Protein 1
Amino acid sequence: MTAEIICVGTELLLGDIVNTNAQFLSRELAELGISVLHQHVIGDNPGRLRELVTQARQRSDLLVFSGGLGPTADDLTKETVAEAFGDTLRFDEEEWQKIVEFFGRTHRTPSENNRKQAMVPVKGHKVPNDHGTAPGAWFEDEQGHAAVLMPGVPREMKAMWAEQVRPALQARQNCTIHSVTLRVLGGESSIASKAAPFFESENPTAAIYCKTGESEIRVTARAATAEEAETACRARIAEFRKVLGDNAYDTDVPGLEYTVVRILREKGLQAATAESCTGGLVAEKLTNVPGASEVFGFGFVTYAEQAKNRLLGVDPALIERCNVVSGPVAVAMARGALKASGADLSIGITGLAGPGGALPGKPVGTVYLAGADARTGRAHLMRLELGGYQERAVIRARAALYALDLLRRMALGLPPDSGVSLGPDDPVPEF
Amino acid sequence: MTAEIICVGTELLLGDIVNTNAQFLSRELAELGISVLHQHVIGDNPGRLRELVTQARQRSDLLVFSGGLGPTADDLTKETVAEAFGDTLRFDEEEWQKIVEFFGRTHRTPSENNRKQAMVPVKGHKVPNDHGTAPGAWFEDEQGHAAVLMPGVPREMKAMWAEQVRPALQARQNCTIHSVTLRVLGGESSIASKAAPFFESENPTAAIYCKTGESEIRVTARAATAEEAETACRARIAEFRKVLGDNAYDTDVPGLEYTVVRILREKGLQAATAESCTGGLVAEKLTNVPGASEVFGFGFVTYAEQAKNRLLGVDPALIERCNVVSGPVAVAMARGALKASGADLSIGITGLAGPGGALPGKPVGTVYLAGADARTGRAHLMRLELGGYQERAVIRARAALYALDLLRRMALGLPPDSGVSLGPDDPVPEF
């Protein structure tokens, strides 16, 4: 099946908003095995809309619309598509009552204009909207071409898609679908080179999405039953994990901090943070996870040298000798954070986020990351070179991701990727 | 002049990425007074591309492309558009040398495929790319219709647009343009109601973009000279400021934290943060501004009650009596942060970011924000009700924005919007 996505809205043509609906629908249609050949954005102009619908209907099986279902006189999408598909509209009393009730709940009265929104297809059918006023519409012509019209408000569109449209299309495609998202530290190319064949597979499919310092692999299986689809997904995820090792850290989570909080909670551990160049980013990420207070109580943003001394007990002579951006200071920060907080695990970060401030042998992007473990007295130190990313915010985001990963590895007893492991009395190397 | 935007790329049709290029170009074209009638996304398919270009060329004056200039065999955008515009391509030795050098700088060698990227229009002209390998192309037919082809990588496209394409279109439109962005705390509707006539004006135009807790007003003036355009912009911005008052906080900055760091630096003041529910977000925002170390040295993320006591000296009896989410605790945190850091100004935040944890009379979204000023011994306390925003991340982001604004107002000596002002010995009210 082939499809075109048509988004109707002047605010899109003016660039007032970014078209996230088109991305959402493209991804969902791809998962259903439906090929999207075109995306269009068009204003509320019946002439141009008619021209587009006529062309699109000839070359594609399915037209997926968002927007243009509003109550004003220039919202003519439903009328225009009805005409192109040889259908007409009728007033639907039931939909009108829903609109009246919806307005009532928010202490408003619908205007005469809103009656337009209660018009539904005669030959086709309406698509219920349980999250807003305007019902959607489904049109079909004699050649089996179909058009589905949904609201433009992303929340309403996504709900209507998930509850009404996607199930109808799944039934047409004669299958059910299950997706699982695996999150993996590292870039697309290193993952693609290790797991290339999985990305060629047609069922389950696998698609990779790049994020800062990590990637998301979305595995989607189609099968006759939901159970089979889920089993196929899980099996492919297990294969990915086998190839990608420790870097594949979790499935279906919004980010690494969620995994870290879950693991700390499972292990009954408390973590603390001592941050200089990341300025509170690691603490902010951890505390954005609901329930983080069970595993995190103390965060130190020691941006000034005095703060490193007063709050973490870092010796000014050490800073003087090694420089504040150095491995020994990072380790002293992490160990100081354990002492000041009573936590089990901690991280210490000091580095150069730029744009200025490069030191001899330490270009912008040099970050020292240390982890300390109160249970063993051991510490781990790594030097990161993040200067290639140039932007201050990206250097900070990548450093924070490494810090979260170090917490994860310490909590799970996994060895870090790089760096040196230090006993309680080992001298801290400068590198 | 009318235009259509055509983005070429399979990754857009698959929903792998969101089409931010279309938004950027739409906004820029609107500012130039060019009406965008259509946006399209299409894959690397010469047949479908030819059909689209033929139709678009008939109805619109200008076709603006991004993407499809890559080196692989299926990148045929340039060839297809050349044909539709009655032009051909030739190999350009100068562009080829630039490509060879570009690869050399990143220690790579171009392949035979890359020679395709050095092909430029014969009748039209190339558009230099100083930020990547592929030059752009400009085609023009006998009826005066034009097509401009730019890379798909947003960074390269935006640079080529700003350096080459926008000036050429400005010259055609016979005017120069100047834009200034005013940032204003508060939502779109309150701004629109105060400044409605300015949004109706045709020159300068004003467009409003909603952000979390604030809005961006982009004022664009067209005039014969750059100086006139700038003067018209500045005059309109001054009118906006008059109507919007203190809430209009700065022009052409990425965010409030930039304004706060600038003001603190100008006033020679040091700030400190004591955060509970925002978990380091205020510190993270401040330290993301280059040069923040001049005005910020100490941040306390006191998520646990013990941390509030040990790091900030908040009396456990006070927490016991008033609850940890209370005005007296927020004030004690802010005052404790001043003492522990030696800073001039501080903020203290404690609240309920949810989703769980509501207290009697304190629903999720209740946040107590205090500011303290070491110069006067005074403090300011406000209670925020952010529960309507539901999402934890949004509650935190809005609370952080209020905190930054409180720092701004304390540094400038402006009265805060709401709340109570407290002398050194005043009892702190519970509300």
Protein 2
Amino acid sequence: MLRVAGRTLVPGAILLVVTLLSAASLELAAAAAPQQQDAVAVARAYRQAHEVEILQFFSGLLRRPNYGGNLEDVTAVAGYLEEQFEARGAEMELLRLPDVPPLVYGEIKVPGATRTLGIYVHYDGQPATGPDWVNGPYEPVLYSGRMDLGGEPIDMPEPGEAVDPNWRIYARSASDDKAPLPALLTALDALQGAGIPLTSNIKFLFEGEEEIGSTHLGEYIEAYGDKLGVDLWLFCDGPVHQTGVPQVVFGVRGVTGLDVTVYGPARPLHSGHYGSWAPVPGQMLAELIASMKDADGNVAVEGFYDSVVPLGRGELEAFERLPLPDEQLRAELGIGWTEGEESLAERLLLPSLTVKGLASGSVGADARNVIPDRAEAALGMRLVKGNDPEHMIDLVEAHIERQGFHIVREDPDMATRARFPKIAKVIRAGGYPAARTDMGLPVVEEVIEAVRAATDQTVLMVPALGGSLPLYLFTDVMEAPALILPIANHDNNQHASNENIRIANLWYGVDLYASLLTMR
Amino acid sequence: MLRVAGRTLVPGAILLVVTLLSAASLELAAAAAPQQQDAVAVARAYRQAHEVEILQFFSGLLRRPNYGGNLEDVTAVAGYLEEQFEARGAEMELLRLPDVPPLVYGEIKVPGATRTLGIYVHYDGQPATGPDWVNGPYEPVLYSGRMDLGGEPIDMPEPGEAVDPNWRIYARSASDDKAPLPALLTALDALQGAGIPLTSNIKFLFEGEEEIGSTHLGEYIEAYGDKLGVDLWLFCDGPVHQTGVPQVVFGVRGVTGLDVTVYGPARPLHSGHYGSWAPVPGQMLAELIASMKDADGNVAVEGFYDSVVPLGRGELEAFERLPLPDEQLRAELGIGWTEGEESLAERLLLPSLTVKGLASGSVGADARNVIPDRAEAALGMRLVKGNDPEHMIDLVEAHIERQGFHIVREDPDMATRARFPKIAKVIRAGGYPAARTDMGLPVVEEVIEAVRAATDQTVLMVPALGGSLPLYLFTDVMEAPALILPIANHDNNQHASNENIRIANLWYGVDLYASLLTMR
């Protein structure tokens, strides 16, 4: 029996959202069409003959800074990608809105093709700040294995020398989400070199502000929607399953969040002359955050789980057949307890509230004997089917108010401070809702078959990733089905310092795209 | 009736510590001896003729980085001070222990003098990191007033031009604790220039690691104690009273603290793929910190107030006559509530527990969608008479354990992580106990008289500052009385960014030292 957030769930219960179906779908598979098998073999042979050149090209791409908040940097990456795909015969175009990262758009028209596949990648990356980068985030370094498990930096081999598939490249966006780009380009090179024709028209859509919330993707779709008709979108992003096997994902959680600042004295005070009298913002913030979860790690914000759309009976049954990597993950992550009482897969069916960051004064060797003037928390939320982003922030704001805080949108002036004993500045993040695609569509079966042809491993069918992509714009706004086909290793440090990709996962990407580009 | 930490105090109650006596002592004053009046007048005239030169000299001193953790920097400052005081006829010496900041020692022997005054200053400063410095911490800038109240940077005037006493100099250590040094040197220059003899032998003791906990001062005193016999120590540090009037302070709170790190996953995780399942260290730390105080802001750590030595009946009566600047301070600091129900003066009679810093992941524009691997808090404690520093840390550690945490001293390995669900690394700070000097000693009366001669304002007698100095080494180890004679303005941002001193307070320092050096 499923228990979520401490409540027992039965079919029809109000809590669950997004199905995690499973091995049921393994039975869908038909044999891959002959041209796919050829295409995968050709791509594999081409890649084996050019491994070092592909890694050199990829390193060059990783050297290009791509934080979406830096317009000059991302625009340069966009222009570079336009050139690279043009060189492979695509008709490319940079779609523009004023003062935001361009959308790299492109088409490959295939004579006689009756189907159009849309391929989405995002070329921007998370910020690359933080003290924990062993190498510069935009200085890709090849490692003999995972650096925290003893992997050592190694020189890039000469062309023709052997490349161990367990090596990794460390750099920002190595996985998230530059990896699909060299994989796609290599697949195109291999197929074109062998004269194997594509079987679908292709539209490329490479976004430049996914990691800063895809703030303008909706506007882009409104402005350029007439170009963007496809039969199926393929989202190339995210990691493979934690068990290491490929997955086809039918949905994502949504995302939003808020930044909360609470205030102590108007200026930092000497902790001796005022300590035990002046309000301490770090203490106030700690008490506020502590009030947001119960002792089991479930969110205690009123109404937080109320809008979650429940699963049906069949989905629940399928869900129970999913592999549960929890014990492996607990050991690998050194986790001694988890939030709630349920498995990871079950917890991903719930909205989350996460302290992504805390800051007040200084800690460690930099700590000073002051009562800081403020304390700040970055709170992230992941949303499931049924959760409206604005409504979820409203719920958290109502909770903050119930804890006695007056909410402001800018730093309070002295009059506001005089009027309200406890003040919280809340900056609401952008965000978007969860999304899901129907597993029963014919084109979905064709894709699953193509994925199977690209790997000799089991392929998992997962109704929703825990992570987020702006998939709803495609499924709900443009009303086209969308599947996610991740290639990165799950331990890629995505969004954190020392992001990396395992070389074997990059090679899987080459095989995957070769298969998809030639699918039945 | 006094209420402290929510409990009503009567004489003999177990909570209070250190008296804050008051206007009672204003009646002690005899008229200042004639030579002091002359000396103050001479010093004032000398200063008025050299104001710009004094500020230029002070700016030069402020340009010298003085964080005690940087041995090269502080040693250079020590050598510079040795030269400056030698130039005024003091016999100077740098006392050394291996690999720690030197103690600058010096003597001025006065023929016929029967009394020796020890003058303590610390020449090191707090770390000067942090993003909020408007100017570089070691780039002193003159301002027309308090920068957060509209003060503007102004050029240093030419010698002979007017200096407004409400101007301020902004730089690290402008108040804490370099300010006494130009004041002392100027007083010596003025007295020597006018041929006015000193009335006491003087011993200088300038410490170089006060802001990093005076870790080796005890060893220095053990090694060089034979040089350090005096009749009275004058501690030149700290701010004047919040009402702006000078004070003579008879004691200090002690200080200690601890740094607490709690652990989530062994590496930062994507907040989508693991959010609502993986433990969130910022949440765990918030819950731990929240548990340390009750809803009124009193410390909820078991036994925290138990060792506090109570005040006697007479001290309580005197205490109630002290001016209470709370309303002024609340307005000035924009504080809408305070910890506990008592006045600031009452709260300073209790030990404090303060969140000096919080850090986990990143906030604001740098926030990333991760579950960080750890969260860290710097917790400071101020101690009152009766509190043993080690015992107070023990109490907090016992509290942390009662919240379910296993305490470690280094980052936990995977075996430790597997064994204990919740782990807290606790780094215990150094520290020292509170101290107090008897108000009734004859030499104390002579000092009070000298302070009165240096100002036309009321002088407050305060039995203990909220802040800390290693005074116990003098009062309890060397067994000499010690008084604190602060000169800095109370709103000096001591220990924080944009530290400053008001010029009028620097001038008060010149008058004060001229008076003390020539006291009856």
